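Hi support team,

I've been running sequence recovery on a batch of backbones for a student project. Most finish fine, but this one hangs at about 90% for roughly twenty minutes before it completes. I'm not sure whether the input is malformed or the queue is just slow. I've pasted the structure tokens below so you can try to reproduce it. Let me know if you need the job ID as well.

Thanks,
M.K.
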């Protein structure tokens, strides 16, 4: 089940229109279960189900159908993929949603082996930690990446201005007047962005621009954060194992008071020899970052 959550975390958000409802959605479906996340930018709903739960619900909703859990999940994978991609989907497939105070149900109507197939995604309100994982933290990371991009572009424009000025001082002129540009002014550029683009950027409405235009950046940020988290977890497990081994060694000395002092001394010496024989861990050295030219937001 943990693998389902990891897979869901790396999926991009899609924008959906269901009758009068507009939702952001992401899903991860495998042969052993699925995980789905939905949001209307006011609430976030989540469901996770393994193969056993899928088989049980499928039997309750489709008494005329008899199929393996993998067959039901394969059908759900086809349906959700077409749904999230915004395509028409399999023939006869229809989606609708129903809200309740503590959840959201997405109803699916389709066919399987020529017979009617029904499915309900029964989503409950997501936990704050899940909202942070899938929305808050990625959005913060994306904003930092975009800020770095703006800084790099501003630095590149200044270098281009210097290059053009050098050409001009040596007698070069543009072949067409329309190619002539003014020197890049960061303050004027920032003021123009604030005046012209900020109102539109802040009108997120139902989240469609975020889901449509920034999918690749979202996936890149979540993938990087996921890999960094696994490295931290692996490092933490290694340190915990070292501490456990040390505690067991110390405990072994303390719970044997009947041992003579010579035996204790030998045990301590053996422990010290064992510790010193282990390879030393190299300290983590952070790379010294090269100073960048000052740019926007610096």
């Amino acid at each position: 089940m943990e693998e389902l959550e990891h897979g869901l975390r790396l999926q991009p958000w899609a924008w959906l229109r269901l009758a009068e409802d507009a939702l952001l959605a992401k899903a991860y479906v495998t042969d052993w279960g699925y995980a789905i996340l939905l949001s209307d930018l006011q609430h976030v709903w989540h469901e996770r189900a393994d193969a056993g739960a899928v088989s049980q619900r499928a039997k309750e909703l489709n008494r005329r159908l008899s199929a393996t859990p993998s067959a039901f999940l394969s059908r759900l994978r086809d349906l959700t993929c077409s749904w999230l991609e915004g395509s028409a989907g399999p023939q006869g497939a229809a989606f609708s949603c129903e809200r309740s105070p503590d959840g959201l149900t997405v109803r699916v109507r389709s066919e399987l082996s020529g017979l009617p197939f029904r499915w309900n995604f029964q989503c409950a309100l997501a936990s704050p930690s899940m909202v942070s994982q899938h929305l808050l933290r990625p959005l913060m990371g994306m904003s930092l990446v975009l800020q770095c991009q703006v800084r790099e572009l501003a630095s590149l424009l200044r270098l281009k201005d210097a290059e053009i000025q050098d050409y001009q001082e040596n007698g070069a002129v543009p072949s067409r007047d329309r190619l002539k540009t003014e020197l890049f002014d960061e303050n004027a550029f920032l003021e123009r962005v604030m005046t012209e683009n900020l109102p539109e950027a802040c009108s997120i409405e139902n989240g469609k621009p975020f889901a449509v235009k920034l999918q690749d950046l979202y996936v890149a940020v979540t993938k990087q954060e996921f890999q960094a988290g696994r490295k931290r977890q692996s490092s933490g497990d290694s340190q915990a194992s070292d501490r456990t081994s040390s505690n067991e060694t110390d405990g072994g000395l303390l719970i044997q008071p009947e041992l003579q002092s010579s035996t204790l001394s030998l045990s301590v010496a053996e422990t010290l020899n064992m510790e010193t024989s282990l390879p030393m861990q190299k300290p983590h050295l952070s790379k010294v970052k090269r100073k960048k030219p000052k740019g926007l937001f610096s």
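--
Follow-up from support: It reproduced on our side and the slowdown came from queue contention, not your input. DSSP finds eight helices and seven strands in the chain. No action needed from you.
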